Amino acid sequence: MKNFYLFILALNISLFTVSSQETHFSQFYTTSVYLNPALAGIQHNPKVTINYRNQWPEIQNSFITQNVTFETNISRFNNGIALNVYRDKAGDGMLTTTSFSGVYAHEIKLNKEIRLRVGMKAGFVQRNVAWDKLVFEDMIDSREGVVHSSQQKVGEAINYFDISSGLFVYSKKLYGGLSTNHLNQAQAGLINKNGNSKLQRSYNLHGGAKFQINGNSEHSFSPNVIISKQGTFTKYNLGAYIEANAFVFGLWYGSAKTMIMTFGINTKHFQIGYSYDLYPASMVGANVGSHEISYVQTFNKPKSSSKKYRTVSCPKF
């Protein structure tokens, strides 16, 4: 019953306000296009990325998020493009958000050492609630249980256009960026369709560095910081990655005393990552966690389309 009330609380927040509806992936740079559109196609070869996140599986009807991205670099014109499909389900599909987006990024050479990338993402989003699965107060009889029809006003699936933008600057060792989501502040309320249901803009500020260990290019240390803000909600993560040959290890500390542990294998043609988020018991009255899995498949470009290309020092996860 406790789990049921937790879900109903989250659902009601989603129905009547959309000020804090961002999914926060733990493998930040694996979901690079989601983090910042300017990162689209930043690597030389095309790749497909698949992400799966299970938020709080200890709670019945947890939050399941899936994300698939194809991206490639058009090195001849210093451009990157990507296609992204995102789907988030809460409460066994009671609340569903699906989006299809296209992303474009362009890279500018500021000087011999520094590059600037600018990017835009535009997509179509649908949000829907399975109203027939919900139980409202006027449906419950104190003796016989759920036996009545509800007079509660229900909504319909909503569709809207969503636009995001981003900037990213990098050199051989340092990198950082800023992205702004929901630039057009679309109407996204499932019941309240007035001006108060606009999707508030959200911001991601991220940056870090990458240093070789003992001069070995196969071993590196990457400290990072990510700060996200939407409305009155602010979230931060501080952490670092260590890369040793094909293995990647990461440890992060975030808002509300959240700990994120990451492990991955990175090869020339594919990478696999797993992360576990541990939340303190004070958040929901019990120790809960989140699982996230990623898979990236990289494809070789034909030699005829290749040119000398400078790679970015961002971590893979």
Q: What does this molecule look like?
A:
- With 317 residues, the protein is mainly β.
- It is 7% helix and 52% strand.
- The chain has three helices and 17 strands.
- The strands form two sheets. A 14-stranded antiparallel barrel has the order 1-2-3-4-5-8-9-10-12-13-14-15-16-17. A two-stranded antiparallel ribbon has the order 6-7.
- A hairpin with a 2-residue loop joins strand 12 (216-230) and strand 13 (233-244).
- The longest helix has 15 residues, at 2-16.
As laid out across the biggest beta sheet, the strand order is: 1-2-3-4-5-8-9-10-12-13-14-15-16-17
- Proportion of beta-strand residues: over 45%
Helix and strand succession?
HHEEEEEEEEEEEEEEEEHE
Number of β-strand runs: 17
What form results from the Cα inertia axes?
globular
Helix content: under 10%
Helix and strand composition category? mainly beta
Q: Roughly what is the average pLDDT, rounded to an integer?
A: 82
State the distance separating the first and last CA atoms: 37 Å
- Could you list the spans in which at least 5 consecutive residues all have pLDDT below 50? 1-20
Per DSSP, the total helix count is 3
Report the radius of gyration as a whole number of Å.
Answer: 21 Å
In summary, what is this structure?
The chain is built from three helices and 17 strands. The chain is mainly beta.
Keywords, separated by commas or semicolons:
mainly beta, 14-stranded antiparallel β-barrel, two-stranded antiparallel sheet, 3 helices, 17 strands, 52% strand, globular, disordered N terminus
